[in-house]
Design brief:
The protein is α+β, with helices and mostly antiparallel strands. It has a single domain, classed as Immunoglobulin-like (Sandwich), CATH 2.60.40. Helix content is about 15%, strand content about 35%.
């Protein structure tokens, strides 16, 4: 069976273009104020899911053991993503808030947005994953931790 050079090139082109291009996202969550609870993190690829903080593309959780938590996501398809994270200090798997919805646990987002009251829109928090990337997120707390 003979295969022409052009057929071989077409097959090679098809293989190379259909392989999913991926990269690694490393996230460093900084400014963790206590060694209690865990850090919850979601990587979102859809505006609606980011807005509602539901159905993240990727999610992770880890117990707090240091003032910085590191997460690594390998083989993530190239594209646009936004990250939301919070410090679940009391371990109830919920971002606790005041009556008006203002968080009382630490929150953080990818991007340069720095609000204590509401999360940034997706377009202010998103980033384009083109190659291996490290994202640093500094947690913001609205309420001082009660002294015991």
């Amino acid at each position: 069976m003979k295969i022409s050079v052009s057929t071989l090139l077409i097959i090679l082109f098809f293989i190379l273009t259909t392989q999913a291009q991926t990269a690694k996202i490393q996230v460093e969550v900084e400014n963790i104020r206590s060694m209690e609870g865990s850090i919850k993190l979601g990587v979102f690829d859809k505006v609606h899911n980011y807005r509602t903080k539901s159905n993240p593309f990727l999610r992770a959780s880890q117990a707090v053991t240091d003032s910085v938590a590191k997460f690594v996501f390998d083989d993530v398809p190239l594209g646009r993503y936004a990250i939301a994270t919070y410090h679940d200090e009391n371990g109830d798997d919920t971002l606790n808030t005041k009556k008006l919805g203002i968080p009382i646990e630490g929150i953080g987002f990818s991007g340069k947005f720095n609000s204590r009251i509401k999360p940034p829109d997706f377009v202010l928090a998103d980033f384009k994953l083109k190659s291996d990337t490290t994202i640093s997120i500094k947690l913001i707390y609205n309420k001082k931790k009660k002294q015991e």
